[in-house]
Specification:
alpha/beta, 13% strand, Rossmann fold
Amino acid sequence: MLKIGIIGAGKVGTALSVLLSRKGYKVASVYSRSQSSAEKLAAAVKGCRVAYSYQDAADAAELIFITTPDSAIAGVVSSIKWHAGHSVIHCSGADSTDILEPARQSGAMVGGFHPLQTFAGIKEAIENLPGSTFALETEEPLLTTLKKMAEDLGGQWITLKAQDKVAYHTAAVFASNYLVTLVKMATDLWKTFSIPTDQATKALLPLMRGTLHNIETIGIPNCLTGPIARGDNGTVSKHLQDLHEKAPALLFPYKELGLQTIPVALAKGTINVKQASELELILTKK
């Protein structure tokens, strides 16, 4: 049975270890700069022992996941003596396998295995990981191993080239991190009519869930609704005036997002070129 080693006992490393173990994989060793984190992970995974150095974790395994922060990956890789028979995998979304070059030069196989998911905490990571898409960057025969691993975790996989990674990760930031920012902007507006953030969030979540459901079932661009989808110049103008008076810091993002939304409405076919031009004029007016 393939022995897996984990270097980095944070949210990603712990979630992968727990879920892979549940699927019958042998997670043999874990090392973390925080010994308490490594001990917690080892206690949660049957047969896993705490390693006491990077090298110790690597020597106890054939496939080693480096699940440290991205900035630490290169330092970890360069500090270990690798050899043929090792497979070295990082879980960075933005970095290519180029940062694993010392391992490759020593005869190891290298790869990227990035779960396209948000990890707010260890419990949430374990709950959210199944069903996710995994971005793979590697060559055969390791590619087949990682494809099966993604499928065993209940997910799907895509393959990326080194030059694809940054754009892929930027897209994830738009879809996940900036969604949080958009909700914060929306709840800040509710404060202008004296509704606190927690109540505003509770009220907006069903709207957001409905939007996500429509994206999933109807798809883009047909799921688009709202004033730009309708070519409703009057409402857009009212929004801009109200933002100018109550939340001027939100004017710029509103305008920019509106301009990005016009082509979606055109593609949906609910506005024509003339209406699109009128909306663009309103949104670019100083």
